[in-house]
Fold these 2 entries.
Entry 1:
Amino acid sequence: MRILMVVLTLITSTFWCVQTRANSVVVIVHKDNPNNQISKRQLIDLYMGKYVAFPNGEKAMPLDVAAPDALKRDFYKKLVSMPVSRVNSYWSRISFTGRASKPREQENERMLVNYIAQNPNSIGYVSRAQFNKMNSKQIKIIMELYE
Amino acid sequence: MNKSGLILRLALTIGFSAVFIGFISSQLFYKVTYKNTLDTAQADIAQIYITVSPSSSIAAYLSDKELANEVLNGLVSNNLIMAASFTTQDLNIATEKFTANYPHQSKFQIVSPFLKNEIIGEVVINHDITYISSRADTTALFVSNALFIQSIVVTSIAIFIAFYFITKPMITIVNTLHTIHPGTSKRLKTPQYHQHSELGNLVNDINALLARTEMQITDERKLRAEIELLEKRFRLLFENSISPIILMEPRGNILLYNKAFTQLLEKIDAPFKKNFGPMLAELFDDTSALEQSVKTAFFNDEIATGEYKLKAQVNNHSVWVQAVISSIRSDDLKSYYQVTLHDVSKKRRELEALSERADYDVLTKLANRAYTEKQLETLINTQTPFAFVLIDLNGFKQINDRYGHDAGDEILIHVATQMKKAVREGEITCRWGGDEFVLVFPNIEQDDITQVLTRLNQRIIKPYLLIQHEVKVNIGSSMGVSFYPNDSIKLQQVINFADQAMYAIKEESKTKGGRFISFASNVADDSSEQTNG
């Protein structure tokens, strides 16, 4: 009985791991972008308007996705542990100073990927599943956000 | 108002201690409240900071000067905060009045809005200590004033209660007690609401005490009345006595005398004086005899009696009094003399008349031999049985030779006095001649006569003090007794038998413990031989 419990737990946890992997969010840039990697801090600074530049100093253009809701929510939760409403209020609080502006928003993941394919200095995010499904040659992953 | 009265003392004590304690505690409360208010201000400032901390986090994260200024302005708009500074790696701004090393500061670390464990700056807040302390002062002052007022109110109530429930009833009790005289029927009233309190008990006890005192005083009054009555009776007795009675000090100061004494003085026409000399010597004709007699009697622990002539004369007659003088010792060991006088002038005059008829011996005031022989013949004529006693003194001649005739006369008077005391009415005492005395007892038995003579002998042999010579002398007696008609019916023979009987034991009676009474019937044989021989 005990052995059965242990086996069950193992199976469940393995399944859960696969799930999260499948639910991860990938951060993508143009395939010609010279940066192959970015740290989480650098990503936060980019998306929260502190430094709008890539690690190599080139100007960066962060992008948000309007739909699906879940993706944007998932992304900010993984990035700064905040709900989207908080992020919105953050931006509303600082936007009047004109020092920084919130990421430009694309309608959906496909439009986001297309935009990145045409703008090498832009940066955005899609779900891992969507990324695998689209299999675009114009973009590359520079970071993957897990739970 | 009484300076040491209870009310004033109570009010002063409670008032002073209340003011003192009120002052101390309000001071203490002031300090504590002041400090609490300061601490509260510090906590309030921390609270205020929390409300602006999200903004300050963002401002620090973005190094946004405007946002930081907004935070600082928000902070200093509060009354508690005088100035504030905002510091990050890139930014260092402060409000106008900010000084870095201010003693009343609160420092808050700014945490990154996205990475919760990363500190990205610091906000320093300078307290508006003037405002805070003035607010603390106001609060503390209010609290301490309230406390002070409360203590005054409580004190007033305490004084009021103490006055109405303790002091006032007590003062009422004290004042009432002050007006109560012991022995009267007036009592204290129990104060209202104090029936079962200590004050009530006090009143009850005092009333019990008053009741007892009243009873005792009543008893005492009754006793005093009885004593007064008794005294009145004694006074009556004393005042109405026919004989003058005088109480005096040994030196002669008269302490007490009765009406009879003043009457006596009036009679002899002598003015009253407080002191007539010891034993009233100034009143008497022959003072030395009186003094002598008193001295002798007191030395022998006897009451002095004697008949003395007064100096003054009434209607050419001399006044004789019998003086009885006794020495009294009072409880406080003072000695007094009590002198009682009896007027014996009349008796004296009769005696003098007798003496004129030569029936009496002048010295001893006893009957003389001639008178006695006449009396004896009368007894024989009427055939009345009698005992004839012849008494001869032992040792008299020696005293006469050694101390003179005065001493001898004194002894004779002394013996004569003892004889007068020994005989009864109708019995004859006689100085037979020299130092020989005769006693005649009509109708008497041998046993009775032995008794009388033994008693007489005891008085005679008692050592006698010759005051002038300051010497005690001893005399004795030998007594011969014959009876009429048992021994003889002839007078001369009765006398001879007694004489023979007396001589038969003369020598023996001189020895101590020897016989001193001899009856003629016992020596009849010897005496007849002697008579014959």
Entry 2:
Amino acid sequence: MSDPARSREDNGSRSMALMERVVRFMNFLRRNRFPVHTVSEINAARALTLIDIEDQFQFYMALRVCMVIHHTHLGLFNRLYMKFWGTGPRIPMPPDDGEEDAEEQSPSVAKRLDMESAVESSRKSGKKRLAQDEEAPVLAHSIYESLREKDFERILESEMPLLEELLKRMRLRTRERKGRRFKPSKRGSVVDLRRSMRDSTQRGGEIVSILRKEKKPKETKLVLLADVSGSMDVYSTFLIQFVYQLQRYLRGTETFVFGTRVMRITDLLHLRSVRTAMSMVSKRVLFWSGGTDIGGCFQQFAGSFGAKYIKRNRILVILSDGWDKGDVEVLRSQMNLFKRKFKKVIWLNPNLKYERYQPLCMGMAAALPYVDHFLPCHNVKTLEQFVETVKR
Amino acid sequence: MKTREAMQRIKAAMREKNYICDDELAFSLYLAQEMEKPLLLEGEPGVGKTEVAKVIADVLERKLIRLQCYEGLDATSTIYEWNYAKQLLKIKAIDACPSSGFHLEDVFTEEFLIPRPLLMALQGEEKKVLLIDEIDRADEEFEAFLLEMLSEFQVSVPEYGTIKARNRPLVIVTSNRVRELHDALKRRCLYHFIDYPAPEREMEIILAKVPRLHTELAAKIARIMNNLRQYEFYKRPGVAETLDWAEAIALLGKSDIDEETMDMTSGCLFKFHEDVKRFKEGKKEFLATVES
């Protein structure tokens, strides 16, 4: 301290070392699928020059305020922060606020902690499982990766929160396509002569304002028919969660479940949380895990909902393994109808995960000729494939 | 320790204006001010996002310029508009008196510009606070033309040139997450998510806003609210609803909350028939959990 020049130099090299570590932290975030933008990095670096670096709370908050731009990313950020810096968001709580007892914490915080511990435990159990399978030990950050390829059938209860997170983070937004019809528009690029002229007649034939028009966007709408008979039980649960996420991005997605009867559950999927939606669905659907009459159900669907939902601009997605106890002829004629009336027919079959799978059961064999895309759906990765197909 | 002091100062000053703000928010505000970056506040409706801007403007003694967003908002109503009538009059005047030495281009000067909120925030010598409220209600195009404003603090007027802020305003953007904002916009901002307050903090808020309420009663209200938010309602009550409710209970002169009070005041908390029904049906349960 006696030599000011030297201490300044010391400080300089110390802050350089810290910056290096911060940059390493950013890379660490990136590797763990946490979205990091360059601008955020620059912001964070700037922010760090404005605070007391020694103060853990400020250090954490400066990084958080700059890096986290979506509140659902906060949990992941906190976990990664904890992992990288060794201290966690619990430590940087300033002393005057940090003295709350666990009991006094708001339930929302408690819930979050609960969730965190669930994630933590799932991480552990995931590791354990892998260890049993005698595979190479995985780093924590690749849990998402392994979960992505894990069969829904083998998902543990404890892994559910992680999976939900994963489904949420899928890129579901589809591109908006321009249609061919026009609609009046303020900012359109095409002059709407017809309306302009008409407008001018009110002003004695003088064209005062040039009115414009633009192409009407064409929306891709999905109609999902999900099989909830006994053989499909496991997959339907996940698929409906997936559809729940999907509906947030594709307005006009309609969801039906079928087994021995058809039922529309679209309205239930608009509820705030997946869990509530799921419990409502299982309450309403009495034929869950029952038998299957695919053809009959499709006929019923066409009869009671067809007028409204069978349209040329919609894509039909059928989720079923094709095990059918009903009349195959009925199924065939219905599929023929769907093929003609829908834009596309996509059949998702979880059994496609078996390499040597042959569509031997009668129902599947009968339906297959009328299907445009025949896809697997047993894990998140294959669901991503499906989204790609829809986007095309 | 400079930062911590500044943070505590913000906190104390906001408290004086009856806004109970936690460290995280105080820090975000401090950083937004120091870095001259916009601060994006997200959170459920009624957690006091808009209030932050109002109070901070008050604290900093700056003028607050508020831009309420809605669908179809466009540049002419947010940045600037030419004063066409005045321009036409001027042109007529030139016509009538050609020797005045006035040129037609001169009608595109600041004199003929009507500044709208965004431009207003950039003009002038004094520092201001700009509140862009509920940006998720505006369409995506609007976000796009906010980008220049938020990152460079300047506005381009094709006929006139670029207007740059001499003093950058403190910009606060709020969103209810009705729709996702574009990343391009989010990247330009610092981000803070305001959650529902913990019961103790909510109690403080109630006492600050409705001082005539008894402390124990305020604590009970806070606990009930906190409990209510765990249930599935079509629209969960926010802090704004809490305050309405506390106000109503204070007006009724009640010393405790019973089922009758809950029935009478349910309209303060819930604005949907289904929610009111659900609340009335479950009131026993809500009270019991709080009392145990």
